[in-house]
Amino acid sequence: MLTFALPTGRSVYDCIELLDQAGLPVEKLKKPGRNLVIEEGNFRYLLAKPMDVPAMVHYGAADLALAGSDVIEESGVALAELLDTQRGKCTMAIAGPPEAALKFNGHISRLMGLRVATKYVNVAAKTFASWGVQIKILKLNGSVELAPALKLCDCIFDIVQTGNTLRANGLSVIKETAPVSLRLVAGVGAVQTRWNAMFGVVEAIGGCAVRGAGN
Ligand code: PRP
Question: What spacing in Å lies between the alpha carbon of 95 and ligand 1's midpoint?
């Protein structure tokens, strides 16, 4: 039995499609109801909040996981990254109202003390620090696009996929900072102790990951 952690939310559809194409059993996974643990064939699937998926494999609760590169970087935990699936693609970006965009047009010093709302506090601080800019971070757990309209921040640091949420809230991308995609990851210990059990699955997912990565 292999335990596989998967993110809930929009990424779960990309995950199920990929696992299905790789020949893993996913019929129950397609209709999980309120179940967070689903057993099918030789697999146990754990459905976790995206931000919690890296910890599931890092601490050994799961052997394998599909996790966004955004949450992997934010978590900062040690993981074995086995492959980039090229699925679930989106972009990490700074976004805001027009007045925030103006600040980014000037000298970098104008960004000092910028108030940034985000779920990704570590990645945001690291990104701005790499430009020599110290920011004030407002940690939110979701609906980050609300914050500029409420004057809680100058701009946001978040993932953008279709851009619909930004547009609906009068915001636009100011600067894209990193591409994001779903990665197949394993715990460092699990790779050492369970590689024989994992190998076939990793190969099957790798074989179809890039093929059909149209999103
Ligand atoms: C993510 C992200 C944006 C939105 C971007 O949030 O934080 O809010 O998706 O997607 P779009 O560009 O296609 O509109 P999610 O829907 O995962 O929910 P959350 O705000 O509760 O985190």
Answer: 13
Nearest CA to ligand 1 atom 2: 159
Question: Residues near ligand 1 with C-beta < 6 Å?
Answer: 9-10, 142-145, 158-165
Q: Is the pLDDT of residue 142 over 90?
A: yes
Widest distance between CA atoms in the chain: 58
The strand order across the sheet containing 136-139 reads: 136-139, 115-118, 155-160, 90-96, 172-180
83, 206 in Cβ contact below 8 A?
yes
Question: Closest ligand 1 atom, CA of 50?
Answer: 17
What angle do the packed helices 188-209 and 11-21 form, to 10 degrees? 80
Q: What is the pLDDT of residues 39-66, one digit of tens each?
A: 999 999 999 999 999 999 999 999 999 9
Q: So what's the pLDDT on residue 211?
A: 64
CA 159 to ligand 1 center in whole angstroms:
7
Mutate-to-test residue for ligand 1 from 53, 71, 159, highest number of ligand atoms within 8 A of CB: 159
Distance CA 24, CA 7 (A): 17
Average the pLDDT over 75-84 and give the result: 96
What CA–CA distance (Å, rounded) separates 119 from 193? 34
Give the mean model confidence (pLDDT) for residues 175-196. 96
96 Cα–ligand 1 center, Å: 15
Indicate if the pLDDT at residue 215 is higher than 50.
no
- 3 state SS of 95: strand
